Amino acid sequence: MMALVAPVAHWDDAEPEVGEVGHLGGTWSDLGLAAGSVTLGVNRIQVQPGNWSTPAHVELAEEEIHFILRGTGISWQEAETYEVGEGDCLLHLVEEQTHTLRAGPDGLDVLAFGTRRPSGGTYLPRAGVVRMGPGNAVARDDKHPWELEAEAGPPEVGDPSERPQRIVALADVVPEQYGAGLVRELGLLTGSVSTGISHVELSPGNEGSPPHCHSAEEELFVVLDGEGVCLLGDEEHSIRRGSVVSRPPATGVPHAFRAGEAGLTYLAYGSREANDIVYYPRTREVKLRGVGVRFTVPES
To answer: What is the architecture, at CATH level 2, of domain 174-296?
Structure first.
C-alpha cells in the first residue's frame, strides 16, 4: 500500500538532488512531490554562481512558470538574453522559446512550476535529444541528455535585450484588492494559457479566499513570507516561509489561508479547467467556471 503524503510540507524537508555536468550545476528539490501534488508540480532549483540551471529546452506539452526567490542572472531564450532577479516571474509557453537560466555572481534560487503531462516531452535542440518524462530519453551514444548538453558547451551570451511581456517584475505590478489582502495576477500579465499564478499578501489575522474546494482544478501554494495557518476542513496546519500546500481536485475538503501576527505572503499556482466546479461551504455557493454561472444550494 502506498504511504499517504501530508498535504502540507516544507522545502527544507524535500530530498535535494544535485546535478553537476559541465556548465550545468544546481540543487533540485521536488516540492510538489513532497506535498503530494498530482497533476501539477513545483521544483526549487538552487543554481551556483555562473552555472546554468538546465539544458536549453522547449516543452512540447507543458506550460512552465518560474518565480525567482533570490539572486540575479540571465534568462537565455532563443539566443536572446534577459536580465532577471528576485521577484521576477517568467512564462514559457508550449512549443515556444527554447530557454534556460544562468546564475549571476550571487547565484539563483528559483521556483519552477509546471504541469505533469503523461504524453508530453521536452526537446533539447543543442543536445539533440527528446526526453519523454523524467527518466526516458531518445539519446545519442547512450549518454544522458545533460552530458550531451555539456558537450555542446554553454550557450553563447550576448548583450541583454529589452525584456518581453512574458517576464514580469513583481515590483512593477499594481496589486488588486483580494478580500482583506492584495493579489498580483502574475500569470495573466505574462500571458499564461493553461495555468495561472498569483502573488497574495494577507494582513495579520485575515483570510484570503473563503474555504472552498474544486472538482477539476488542482492548486499548489508556496509560502514566501510571514506565518499563519492553512485550513483544511476542520483541521488547521501551521505554515511559514517555505511551506508547500497541495490541493488536488475532487477531495471534497475545503481549504483556506489565515495570516498570523506577521501577516502572510504566498504564491498560488493552479490549472485552468473549463469544466471546474467550485463549492464554498460557508455560503453554500457553487460556481460553474466554464459557463460563468453561480448559484446557492438550498439547505436540506
So the answer is: Sandwich (2.60)
Q: Is 91 buried (19+), middle (13-18) or exposed (0-12) by CB count in 10 A?
A: buried
Q: List 239's β-bridge partners, or say none.
A: 228
Nearest to residue 222, comparing CAs of 14, 71, 19, 57? 14
Q: How many Cα neighbours within 13 Å face the side chain of 246?
A: 22
Domains 8-169 and 174-296 share a fold: yes
Confidence of residue 187 (pLDDT cuts 50, 70, 90): very high
Cα-based angle 9, 269, 160 (whole degrees, multiple of 5):
110
Give me the residue spans of the domains in the chain.
8-169, 174-296
Taking only the tens place, the pLDDT of each residue in 105-123 is: 999 999 999 998 665 677 7
CA distance linking residue 213 with residue 277, whole number of Å: 8
CATH architecture for residues 8-169: Sandwich (2.60)
pLDDT for 2: 35
| φ, ψ for residue 13, nearest 5 deg | -95, -10
Q: How far is CA 293 from the centre of its chain?
A: 28
Provide the residue type at 22 as one letter.
G
Could you report how far apart the first and last alpha carbons of the chain are, in Å? Answer: 38
Regarding beta strands 195-202 and 167-169, do their DSSP bridges make them parallel or antiparallel, or are they unpaired?
A: unpaired
> How many C-beta atoms surround the C-beta of residue 243 within 10 A?
24
Which residues have C-beta within 8 Å of that of residue 179, sequence separation ≥ 6? 202, 206, 207, 208, 209, 210
d(CA 21, CA 16): 16
The Cα–Cα gap between 153 and 201 comes to 42
User: What tens digit of pLDDT does each residue of 265-294 get?
Assistant: 999 999 999 899 999 999 999 999 889 899
